[in-house]
Amino acid sequence: MPQHSEAIDTALSKLPVLDVGCGINKFRGAIGLDRSPRTKADIVADLDRFPYPLRDNSFREVRVIHVIEHVGDVIRMMEELHRLLAPNGRVIIVTPHYTDFSSFCDPTHRWHLNSYSLRYFGENHGGFGYYSAARFREISVRVRLLALWRYLGFEFLVNRFPHFRRLWEFYLCYAIRGKVIEWDLQAIKEAGVSSIHDSSSGS
Predict the structure, then answer these.
(1) Cis check: omega of the bond before 51, within 30 degrees of 0
(2) Ordered domains of the chain (ranges, CATH)
(3) Could you give phi then psi for residue 135, rounded to 5 degrees?
(4) Where are the beta strands (DSSP E) in the chain?
(5) Whether residue 1 has pLDDT greater than 50
(6) Which of these, 103, 74, 75, 77, lies nearest to 178 by C-alpha position?
(7) Rounded Cα–Cα distance for residues 154 and 106 (Å)
(8) Which residues, other chains included, contact 129 with Cβ-Cβ below 8 Å and sequence gap of 6+?
(9) What is the rounded CA–CA span in Å between residue 193 and residue 176?
(10) Cβ neighbours for 68, distance < 8 A, ≥ 6 positions apart
């Protein structure tokens, strides 16, 4: 069993990283995907049109940094990221917390999320797993708070104790406001399994 796991990890390490919505600050060494040709994208495509012109199971990591709040369909995008990731591949998602000023000051933001917004895709989906068959294992979810609350230790409490994070999201976050949510999720899928929706991917 360990040898099998090591073989999977070795194969995974040889796959590239995809930076979705890379803009002009593409992650170093990654393949950039963006809708604008004025960015550092290697592939120009509309992020709201699926499938993206990329093969199934092609990446060890997909980075979605301050992008998911702009797309038209969060569920469909998560399914597409699941399709593109190899088994055990990781997706890194960063987005403003909905209580932060930046979440609402940009008129191109369609979604305002909290740290539980992606639970539909988890193993513990709270009974809402029927929205999608795509599954991700939560490696970590981290909330960054505004500087004052970070210095006073609230950020440590929110991230260290899951029950305190739930209490914070339910009752305290409008006073002790969040800044950014960072998810690290691992694709749960069998080798050779393609997308949730049948599609003919590009090269």
Answers:
(1) yes
(2) 2-145+180-188 (3.40.50.150)
(3) -130, 135
(4) 17-20, 31-34, 43-44, 59-65, 85-96, 135-145, 178-188
(5) no
(6) 103
(7) 27
(8) 120
(9) 43
(10) 74, 77, 93, 95, 111, 113
Per-chain mean pLDDT for the chain: 90
Tens of pLDDT along 94-123? 999 999 999 999 999 999 999 999 998 987
Closest CA to 84 of 53, 40, 38: 53
Backbone angles phi, psi at 86, to 5 degrees: -70, 160
What pLDDT, on the 0 to 100 scale, is given for residue 186?
97
Single-letter amino acid code for the residue at 175: A
* Residue 8: its H or E element: helix 2-13
Ramachandran angles phi, psi of 107, nearest 5° = -70, -10
